[in-house]
Amino acid sequence: MLIAGFPAGSFQTNCYVVAPAAGEECVIVDPGQNAVDDLDDVLREHRLKPVAVLVTHGHIDHMWSVAPVCGARDVPAWIHPEDRELLSDPAKGLSLATRQQLFGGLTFTEPDDVRELADGEVLRLAGMELTVDHTPGHTRGSVTFRLPRTEEIPDVMFSGDLLFAGSIGRTDLPGGDYPTILRSLATKCLPLPEDTVVLPGHGPQTTIGRERATNPYLAEAAPYAGPTRGL
Questions:
Q1: Which of 186, 210, 215 is nearest to 197 (CA)?
Q2: Nearest to residue 150, comparing CAs of 14, 16, 10, 20?
């Protein structure tokens, strides 16, 4: 398994490239601001051919380069339907102050081929199987992607802005909701094996075991795993 990542743009959003091995097909996760040049370097270095772009959620720092990457490589973009409108109008996911700061003259469009993700769906792409988990709370359409363990690596989760090392995604932007993100953490993260590698949208990688032991938000989320919380 080959997983290469780099922080893109002023937001330092982690963009990941995932393939069974060098010289094969790959998928790209969250190509953010100014990601194109670094992404091209990774693809060239490992001789990879992209077949899809996967978007954990529609915030601008995660989808800034989706359309140009898809257009240049003629590949589809996958996003949850609750966040699809942000591909062409990312301002809807931001505060008013941030909109005014970022969007002077900027325009965004959907890629030509957009496909919608569903909770529990298994994507069979580039010779790999990635499980989609709908994890609302940061945005309504936030998702994570999981790779099953192999002889080489444990389970891997691309967590977007659901879970970080020592923290979680913010919930104060349009579409965010704190009790909802706690429910997502409780139902989609806490049940995973301790050695699951978490590759987040920002910052360093971590593991579910480390976060279960040290992340205060996961401790707060634990009661939300029950079926009667009404979320």
A1: 210
A2: 20
